[in-house]
Design a protein that fits this description.
This protein is α+β, with helices and mostly antiparallel strands and about 190 residues long. The chain has a domain of about 120 residues: Roll (Pnp Oxidase, Chain A). β2 and β3 form a beta hairpin. The two termini are about 20 Å apart.
Length: about 190
C-alpha cells in the first residue's frame, strides 16, 4: 500500500515521526546483522538521510568488522524508536555498501554534511583493532574524503510498525512482495 504521494505508507509514518522528533538523537537507530562467524551483532548508527521510496542511509568506516559479515550475509534489521510519538519501526532488508569506487554524489554530499569531529574519526586507526598509541588519535580532520569513508544503504523489504501511544497499542506489518507493498494489522 502506498500513500497519496506514491511512497509506502510506512515511509510516510517514519517521516512524520522524525518530524515530531527534531532533536539530533532521534536519528540514532540500532542495526543488527551477522558477523563473519555467523553470530548476531548489534550496534548504534546514525541515519544520515532517508531516500524515497524508503532507503535508509548511514555512514560507516569501511575498515570495521561489520563489513566482513555483510559481505557474507547482507541481511540486517534496524530498530528505531522515536519517543515523541512513542513509535517503533523495525526495518528488515538488505544492506548495500558504497565505498570510494562508486563515485557517488551522495557519498560526497554526506561527507560535506558531517562534523569535523566525525571526519576526524576516519583518520584514526581501524576500529576494533588493538588500541593504538595516543598520538594516532590526534590527527586533524581530513579535507578530502578518505577511502575508508563509506555508506550503508538499508533497503527494507519488511517494516514492523508499533504505535505505543495508541490505546490499545497499534501494530502494522508492511511487506514488499511481488513488486508492491502490502500491509496487515497485527496484535501488538
Amino acid at each position: 500500500m502506498t500513500s497519496h504521494d506514491g511512497l509506502p505508507d510506512w515511509f510516510a509514518l517514519l517521516q512524520q515521526a522524525l518530524h515530531a522528533n527534531p532533536q539530533p538523537s532521534a536519528r540514532y537507530l540500532q542495526l543488527a546483522s551477522l558477523d563473519a562467524a555467523g553470530a548476531p551483532t548489534c550496534r548504534t548508527l546514525v541515519c544520515r538521510q532517508l531516500l524515497a521510496p524508503g532507503t535508509l542511509v548511514m555512514t560507516t568506516d569501511l575498515r570495521s568488522d561489520k563489513l566482513r559479515g555483510l559481505q557474507q550475509n547482507p541481511l540486517a534489521e534496524a530498530c528505531w524508536y522515536l519517543p515523541a510519538r512513542q513509535q517503533q519501526f523495525r526495518l528488515r532488508g538488505t544492506l548495500r555498501v558504497q565505498g570510494s569506487g562508486h563515485g557517488s554524489s551522495l557519498r560526497e554530499a554526506l561527507w560535506d554534511s558531517v562534523s569535523a569531529a566525525t571526519r576526524q574519526t576516519f583518520t584514526r586507526p581501524a576500529p576494533g583493532r588493538r588500541l593504538a598509541a595516543a598520538e594516532a588519535f590526534e590527527r586533524p580532520a581530513p579535507t578530502s574524503i578518505p577511502a575508508c569513508f563509506g555508506l550503508l544503504l538499508l533497503q527494507p523489504q519488511r517494516v514492523d510498525y508499533l504505535d505505543l501511544a495508541a490505546t490499545p497499542h497499534q501494530r502494522q506489518l508492511f511487506e514488499f512482495k511481488t513488486g508492491e507493498w502490502h500491509s496487515r494489522a497485527l496484535n501488538p
